[in-house]
Amino acid sequence: TAEECCNACKKFKPSSSDGDYCNTWVWCPNPAGCAGQKLHSCWLKYQPHPEAPAVSRGNEITWMSGALYKSATQTPRAPGERRSFHVAVTSNDSKYVQWQMRVMYYWYLKRKAEQGPDGDMGGFTRILHSGRPDHLMDEIPTVVVDRLSNEHGFVVLSRPNAFVQWLKKVTIEEDYVLMSEPDHLYLQPIPNLMNGRRPAAFPFFYISPKEHPALIRKYVGDITLKQIQQMDPVGSSPVMLHKDDLKRVAPRWHDLAVKMKTDPEADRAWGWVLEMWAYTCAAWLEDIHHDLVPKLAAQPPWDTTLTDFYILHYTYGNDYSLDGKFTPGKIGQWRFDKRSYMGRIPAKNLALPPKGAPQSVITLIEMINEASASLPNWEQGGKF
Questions:
Q1: What is the pLDDT of residues 90-117, one digit of tens each?
Q2: What is the DSSP string of 316-330?
Q3: Are the beta carbons of 80 and 116 closer than 8 angstroms?
Q4: Do the Cβ atoms of 68 and 44 come closer than 8 Å?
Q5: DSSP state of 37
Q6: Alpha carbon of residue 227 to chain centroid
Q7: Cα–Cα separations (whole angstroms), residue 234 to 34, 109, 277, 292
Q8: pTM
Q9: Distance CA 199, CA 251 (A)
């Protein structure tokens, strides 16, 4: 049974002191078998991060699985103790990012108002790395910093440099920072998710250090394969960490990002998520390790429900037929992709997805529609 398979994982003892123990199990309930294995077959496995295991999804998956791990627990608080965090978001002054920033800030304000006087959501800063003010300065709390002198055609390269400058320019009253992004919509008031000083971060399936051991060693030194597997599969956002740790990691994050972008091998391997890899490597070098919190962000269309999630991250395109069937890799008869609005602002009252589309996608459109209906001068992009 599945229970017996789980218990076998719990009882497994490695053959040597440095061998891997079992923390994930897979069991086949399918009479026709699973991936060439027979009915009731049981696999015992080890994953370096069982709290965020690499999993397969889809209707074609015929097996079931489970993971064994201790959940990270928030540090108990003394009566009246506050663990407020400051939300920091980097941005340029393009129309594409500006409309996302307006929607994001609208939902930040709404969730902060909902949290009550004892909530952890503190102040907010848009770190504008254009080197000049824009017309949203009065709408969104903003600190202007310089654009990186050479972004090498990769605007995200300015992100770590923006944090370095911001930390030198300002003093925030909160002890903690949530690094967030313009395409983050807050689904509920967010508590401080950290366990003491240990950062909390969302795990990304495509940040998999074990897939690039040679490149990892090129940037962090000659570490073992097991150490590489233990590196946190995170990017720079969403990440919640102490401001002193951010001050410590940001300069190295910036330096590594520039080095990686000018390294053809790293640029080819890591492409549009290269800056995220730079943060992962910088955090390892600074001995900063994260608790992985999968519920920190939902990413439609792949996450179809929103139960217990804190952030809706709409980085992917959402394509559906008119009868509500998901059409990955094919432009849908109904679609929403933020990249469709690179040079224009989405209309008010966007059409909801067809019946049959998942709740996550419906909620995404509803949240954008509410913000666009409530924000002044939406069609013009805000106050001019």
A1: 999 999 999 999 999 999 999 999 998 8
A2: S-EEE-TTS-B-TTS
A3: no
A4: no
A5: B
A6: 23
A7: 31, 26, 8, 8
A8: 0.91
A9: 18
